Amino acid sequence: MNSAFIYTSRFDDFSLGEYHPFKPYRGTMTFELCYRYGLLDASWIEVMEPAPVTEEVMLEYHLPRYVETLKDANSGSFDFTMLEYGLGTGDNPVFKGVFDFSLLVLGATILGAELLSEGKADMVFSPVGGLHHAGYDHAEGFCYVNDIVIAINRLLKSGMKKIVYVDIDAHHGNGVQDAFYDRDDVLFISLHQSGETLYPGTGFENETGEGRGVGYTVNIPLSEYTDDDIYVQAFESVYTPLVESFRPDCVVAQIGLDTLKKDPLTNLRLTNNGYSRVIEEIRKSCPKILALGGGGYSVSDVVRGWTLAWAIFNGLEPQDPYQGIISGNLVPFTQGPDELRDPPYHLAENIRRDLHEYIEKKLAFIRERVFPVHGIG
Ligand SMILES: [Zn+2]
Questions:
Q1: What was the pLDDT predicted at 1?
Q2: CB-based contact 107:98 (threshold 8 Å)
Q3: d(CA 125, ligand 1 centre) in Å
């Protein structure tokens, strides 16, 4: 196996604003934590530095007038015409370097796609990527450019025939769904907090694709308070049989970590133990994986979770060579690989019963409407 961690400290130069929840520096923090736990040392692992792409790459998916407007926004100064393209809102502020940042995000994700399509890597992780809400002609949901859509199109163009896109971010991957809604060569599977209670208000189970794409868009809306066990059960009962039947050439995974109990923007109740089980399932499902960071707003928890994900994708156990050396005399000793894992969390039985009923209805719908398309009885 060859594995690549896409990293550049240049992401740290960009800020959506001091109080904006999306922090590009999560990439550097994840890199540093992986380094600390010895997860970049293996002979098959390479750290690759991305460069910004040219504007033409952005134009492979986005509307030219949107790209022009995003370029105008690069100076950091806002004018009201930008609102037409979703720029200058609280979610998608105009900030200095917004265009450069978008070119760099694309550079990182496209580098990953190229390593996979050229056979130079089987597993790639780019923490600052996976901007699943960006639309063809607008920014939304902290996303300015849809690196996922462009990467999937590149993988298909390189000769791959079938791609699975799996999205475990707490929000529905609406931008990616829209791009491939009528396609049967991209199997889209998204688990997310229901659009009844969370942005972007889409991703209901009856959104299953159109035309030849019917049955190739799969949405699993989750109730608030969903915990590890309910989530993992839902994931395994849908993702695993579908991917086994579809047999993709590559899985593109948006592994957002705003599903965590401590996330300030969502209402799910996962720990990174449930998350790890899902990552393990993804890892087993295909020999080629492009993993992209996505969302996650309890920063230190996201970084711990992504570190675990990187370890799992590479079949490694985190090791801390400094354990016992750098803990001080005053600070209680808490550092060590165990610190990466959250304590278990389970719902009270009566709440769990209600949530179980809720998810069973969604799963029954998918078994009835989607599974037959894939010959699963
Ligand atoms: Zn999200």
A1: 65
A2: no
A3: 18
Distance between CA atoms of residues 311 and 34, nearest Å:
8
pLDDT given at position 339: 85
pTM above 0.90, yes or no: yes
Q: How many CB atoms lie within 10 A of CB 156?
A: 19
Q: CA torsion 75→72→295→371, rounded to 10°?
A: -170
Beta-bridge partner residues of 136 = none
What is the separation of C-alpha 248 from the centre of its chain, rounded to a whole number of angstroms?
18
Quote the ligand 1 centre to 100 CA distance (angstroms).
22
Tokens 């060569």 belong to residue: 185
Query: pLDDT value at position 326?
Result: 55
Strands (E), the chain: 3-6, 45-48, 123-126, 163-167, 186-193, 217-222, 250-254, 289-292
Question: What's the average pLDDT block by block, 10 residues per block, for the chain (377 residues)?
Answer: 94 97 97 96 97 98 98 97 98 98 98 98 98 98 98 98 98 98 98 98 98 98 97 98 98 98 98 98 98 97 97 93 61 63 94 96 98 95
266 touches 258 (CB < 8 A): yes
Q: Is 133 a catalytic residue?
A: yes
Domain ranges, ordered by start, for the chain: 3-320+335-374
**Active-site choice (62, 133, 138, 192):** 133
CATH number of 3-320+335-374: 3.40.800.20
pLDDT attached to residue 41: 96
Find the 198 Cα to ligand 1 centroid distance in Å.
10
Strands (E), 45-101: 45-48
CA distance 275 to 229: 10
Give the Å distance between the CA of 326 and the centre of ligand 1. 35
The answer to whether the CB of 122 falls within 8 A of the CB of 116 is yes
Q: What angle do CA 171, 178, 240 make, to 5 degrees?
A: 60
CA of 170 to the centre of ligand 1 (A): 5
